[in-house]
């Protein structure tokens, strides 16, 4: 079965929009998400523009603030100053930052309830303590797809151990009673590990990496990879060879990516609700 992310995103967008409409009506506010981009990475610009469009559909003002260049300490000061503003409800630092800048040193100056990306140490720690109010959107998207399509099987292996994907995803899956194996470049006999699991989540950043030698007919493959070849995007799974073999697979594009783009706004909404309830 094709696990189409568009259906998942559509359902989530409508739920988020209705909550945002209610909040705007009740509190007479105009919610704002501020994106901070340093440099001119073209993929990062594409993602930022797609957030602006998605925000418009949801009634959220997404503002993009771009710096051609800025040093780390001036950038950190800027993050602190916009974080202090009551008229900005969520902040995202677009990655990658240029070489020489440190993403985590900057992001950790965002209050946890404005951290729409879920990348602060505070929110990663909260997630480890089973609090899912704000979680890295890509990890959330994988779980959303598994839940939406009621994918069977509670043994999962994740091929990725980064703070963006593998680590938070392991927490979300554990919270849902999965038995999780987290794999990486030093894992021995990765193919055998993958074949033993019901669900394989691949996020290595290598186009076509997961071929038929990693799967069985019972595998459900969730492909997180985004690899550019010119204008085209490919996943980490060798989709043409797996499509007819495995039980379930997500497409790229149209799979995890589109749900991730939506889940940023779920984080934003959860943080906004926290602000309205707790921050004066
Ligand atoms: P990353 O930090 O480079 O992590 C890559 C992971 O893959 C690492 O854990 C690495 O292992 C592992 N790996 C690399 N080569 C491997 C191999 N031959 N065998 C086994 N494991 C291997 O990248 P990331 O930021 O997590 O992103 C990963 C991918 O997801 C990229 O393609 C990125 O574009 C995509 N992504 C997609 C979304 C979305 O919304 N769909 C969002 C974010 C990222 P080590 O730890 O041992 O190095």
Bound molecules: NADP nicotinamide-adenine-dinucleotide phosphate
Summarize model confidence as the mean pLDDT.
97
Per DSSP, what share of the residues sits in E-state strands of 2 or more residues?
15-25%
User: Low-confidence parts, pLDDT < 50 over ≥5 residues?
Assistant: none
- The general outline is globular
Name the CATH superfamily classification of the largest domain: NAD(P)-binding Rossmann-like Domain
Total count of helical runs of at least 4 residues: 10
Tally of separate domains: 2
Distance between the termini: 48 Å
The beta-strand count equals: 10
Question: Can you walk me through this structure?
Answer:
The strands form three sheets. A five-stranded parallel sheet has the order 5-4-6-7-10, sandwiched between helices. Strands 2-1-3 form a three-stranded parallel sheet. It has a two-stranded antiparallel sheet with strand order 8-9. 43% of the residues lie in helices and 16% in strands. The chain is an alpha/beta fold. The site of NADP nicotinamide-adenine-dinucleotide phosphate has 22 residues, from α10.
